Amino acid sequence: MAISVNSVYRTVLSVLNKEGRGYLTPDQFNRIGTQVQLDLFERAFYDYNKAINRKKRFITNDEYADLPKNIKEKIDIFSKEATLSITTGTSTLPSDLYRIVALTTSDRTTAVQEVKKSELTYINASKLTAPTTSYPVYYLESASTSTTNQEIDSDSSIDTKIKFLPSTLTSATLDYIKIPQAPKWAFTRGTNDSYSWNRSDSYDFEIHKSDEVDLVLKILAYAGVLIKDPTVVQSVSAEETKIIQLENS
Question: Residue 51 — very low, low, confident or very high, per pLDDT cuts 50/70/90?
Answer without folding.
Answer: confident
